[in-house]
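Section 3.1: Structural characterization of target chains.
Under the original work plan, the team committed to producing a structural model for every single-chain target entering the pipeline before any wet-lab resources were allocated. The record below documents one such target. The sequence was received from the expression subgroup and is listed exactly as submitted; it comprises 258 residues.
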Amino acid sequence: MIRFKRLLLLFVSLSLVISCTSESPSDGGDGIDRSANLKSLGTSASDLLNDATYTSMNIEIVYVENYKPSDEAISIFRNFLESRTYKPDGISINLRSVPSSGKAPFSIEEVVEIEKQERTAYNVGDEIAVWIYFADGHNEKDTDEKFVLGSAFRNTSMVIYGKTIRDFASRNNAPRRATIEGATLNHEFSHLFGLVNLGTEQTSDHEDPENNGHCVNSGCLMRASIEFGSGVVDVIEGGGVPELDQDCIDDLQSIGGK
């Protein structure tokens, strides 16, 4: 049996979470106002959670061929969103394939450029839009001991490193790919919700002092890292995708979430 005692899975590295508001024009010459989707991480938390401004949500998932997320992961993701948000007019999740950019391994700046080219869904009327990219490569800062599964980098934008997830899921004793995909989607979207202390004010002090933007409570979906064979991985193997703990739920409910 291969042991990965020192192997850490980072759901998101906050050194990579950046505000890209000024990096893209709000109008690409096609008359589409992109400004509401080019804001910093966490600034649209309440809009994503409640129905005061937006009564529906349109999630655009683009994936490179052969890196389409599993149907099971999408089901896990949808159930998570429906359990935490008020969107009376529904949540649509639309998937489509896009060509490989050929840029792997990726910097966040390169993912931003891909978003400029491939994103088609933006806020319109009472519908808020989110863009998710399933990449055919790794993050450029990955090492043998640490690797990033996903990064939320704008108020309605995130990247999931599909190849990283598939490579890890193929290792001995690793959780199933669908479970890792579902956990990563839920974790990264929770950063869009402003967790932890990333735009959504804490109702109690539960931010990890050693990992800003993450929860200190054991077993929570928003823990920063997983040590293989223990911690949250045990939760994944024993009972599926980890859930938000009550402190995180209280934070979301304080701004209109379920």
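The chain has seven helices and eight strands.
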